[in-house]
Amino acid sequence: MPNALSIRPGYWRVTTPDGRVLGNIEAVGADGVPEYRANRFRPAVLEYAPLGSFSDLAVAIDAFRN
Q1: What is the DSSP letter of 64?
Q2: 66 vs 5, 10, 41, CA distance in Å?
Q3: What's the rounded Cα separation, in Å, for the pair 31 and 21?
Q4: Is the dihedral of CA 46, 49, 51, 56 positive or negative?
Q5: In this model, does residue 66 exceed pLDDT 90?
Q6: pLDDT mean over 30-58
Q7: Beta-carbon neighbour count of residue 63 at 10 Å?
Q8: Are 7 and 21 in contact (CB under 8 A)?
Q9: Amino acid 32: pLDDT
Q10: How far apart are the first and last CA of the chain?
Q11: Which of 15, 30, 37, 64 is 20 to 30 A from 4 (CA-CA)?
């Protein structure tokens, strides 16, 4: 199961249980509607690739399982 560590309000770093960085999640919702954008880290090219937008933080974290 991926772990999410809050870096600052509305921003989480997602890691494996052993600490390897998988990516990040950013809260971007507006008008009281939650939205979380997940981005997977691609170490081979040192950049992030979008995983998608989610209405639930737990679902966004779970997206890093694959």
Answers
A1: G
A2: 19, 23, 13
A3: 31
A4: positive
A5: no
A6: 94
A7: 19
A8: no
A9: 85
A10: 10
A11: 30
Which among 38, 65, 30, 19 has a CA at the least distance from the CA of 5? 19
Nearby residues of 37 by Cβ (< 8 Å), 6 or more positions away: 25, 26, 28, 50, 52, 53, 54, 60
Tell me the pLDDT of the chain averaged across its residues: 95
pTM exceeds 0.85 for this model: yes
Which residue type occupies 15?
Answer: T
In the numeric block, which tokens belong to residue 45? Answer: 């090219």
Helix (H, G, I), strand (E, B) or coil at 31: coil
Where are the domains positioned within the chain?
Answer: 3-65
Tokens of residue 7, six digits = 């870096």
